[in-house]
């Protein structure tokens, strides 16, 4: 059976109030709206980045296609220019000149086909460049929004951290000199009971579990020695007896 001066037990409620406040602040630190916003923005940015990678890959492929199409067109142009020069010079037999003329006609058709392919590839390239530009703009907007959210989070965390530091100082003062056995029991019960290890007994109700105890248990608690540490039969927390209200 744990015993501790009744005054220490009552002071323990002050320590509990500070611990409860600290737990609330810690919860706020974990659940700041800015944190959820940062998570959302990170997910959006990851999606945009994935699209940007795909777009850059497509652009790289299309640029190679454009280079190849340019080379194919240039090769036909060079061949046509050489044939045209031979035709203009009038050298060779009539049969040779006729063959050159036929080849120039074929080269003209081939050049037109290749230029059409080149144009189609360039149009696709421009479309992908436009998409990539839009993705880059979207990423810049998201990054700016994230920077704002991070600044908001850091500012809020700084305020809450300062509150916690002040609470820790206050708690140390409140807990100083408390019965060691009482504190050990309180810390164990607090760890087991979601942060609440001690609660006041008000009338028949335990302020920890908010349940009313049966009259016989309450009577036994009231009659227990003041230094006896009693636990709630319902939730197992330390029950701290408060002074009886003065009846007029």
UniProtKB/TrEMBL annotation:
<dbReference type="Pfam" id="PF02591">
    <property type="entry name" value="Zn_ribbon_9"/>
</dbReference>
<feature type="coiled-coil region">
    <location>
        <begin position="125"/>
        <end position="152"/>
    </location>
</feature>
<protein>
    <submittedName>
        <fullName>Uncharacterized protein</fullName>
    </submittedName>
</protein>
<feature type="domain" description="CT398-like coiled coil hairpin">
    <location>
        <begin position="15"/>
        <end position="194"/>
    </location>
</feature>
<dbReference type="InterPro" id="IPR056003">
    <property type="entry name" value="CT398_CC_hairpin"/>
</dbReference>
<dbReference type="InterPro" id="IPR003743">
    <property type="entry name" value="Zf-RING_7"/>
</dbReference>
<dbReference type="Pfam" id="PF24481">
    <property type="entry name" value="CT398_CC"/>
</dbReference>
<feature type="domain" description="C4-type zinc ribbon">
    <location>
        <begin position="205"/>
        <end position="239"/>
    </location>
</feature>
<dbReference type="InterPro" id="IPR052376">
    <property type="entry name" value="Oxidative_Scav/Glycosyltrans"/>
</dbReference>
<keyword id="KW-0175">Coiled coil</keyword>
